[in-house]
Amino acid sequence: MFALLSLTSVESVALFEKVNYDEFIGVWHSCLETTTMTYEGEVKVKKHTKQNVPCRGIQVANITYVGDDNGMDHTGQEKVTQILQLRQEVLNHCELLGITPDICPNATIAGNTFEGKNVKYVQNYHGIGSYGSQHHVKFYGEEKSYYDVHGELIRVPDLDAVEDQDFFDCTYKAELQGIVCDARQNEYRWGIEGSDVWHPIGFADFGTYYLVENMAACPFCENYQCSETKFRIRANILGLGSNNKITCSNVNKIENEHVKKLVCETAGTVKKYK
Description:
The protein has helices at residues 2-17, 45-48, 257-263, and strands at 26-39, 42-43, 50-54, 59-65, 83-93, 118-128, 136-141, 144-147, 153-155, 166-173, 178-189, 201-212, 225-228, 269-272. The protein has two domains: 19-219, no CATH class; 223-272, no CATH class. By secondary structure, the protein is mostly beta strands. 10% of the residues lie in helices and 38% in strands. The longest helix is centred in the N-terminal third of the chain and has 16 residues, at 2-17. The strands form two sheets. The protein has an eight-stranded antiparallel barrel with strand order 1-4-5-6-7-10-11-12.
């Protein structure tokens, strides 16, 4: 009896020591999403609501382990396999951050259509893989930054004290070849730069996302196909290889999902729908 208990204990320790969350690591894109925004207590249906929108392909999250350049913890002896970071980059209106038009970067993100003059807004979330499941990580975040007109990353610490903590609650689904995340972001602004009415405003973005690393794994993109044409062109696009030929057989090698989708609309291949 004692020997059995000891063996079970040893096996349990080994199980915990080998824990890792490699399946979360990668750059994740939107396969299907439903999102909305509440602004001063009201849902902005027309402008900020997306319901069951398929195959957007936009990058939603970049998940990495937290460690030094070699992936090790502060001791330099143990590899980090349980503490993760989720980095999100979105667009936000310059005036909401007090950035005047003359110094607004007019930032853009591939595949993200956002009206007005914008800045790239960055948030890092951090999570610890649960001992209860190697397929679940909840990421928490609050500290936010943006890239200014010179490309410098600027912190906005005055917002942290008044906003609720944000989160991405993510589960890996092997059968979907991706992760499903429920997310909530609470935002507060002191006012709108240049507005006649200067008063604090609050809004919240929240939604559910089905994310994949490679859009070829997204079942909601099945109606988006390439067919060959007689034309052949070359393009210096990362992932196409040394010959740089654009064909349907190598289009999935392109690393940027938005560029990959655009390539299907070039002279080398043609978009068609079922």
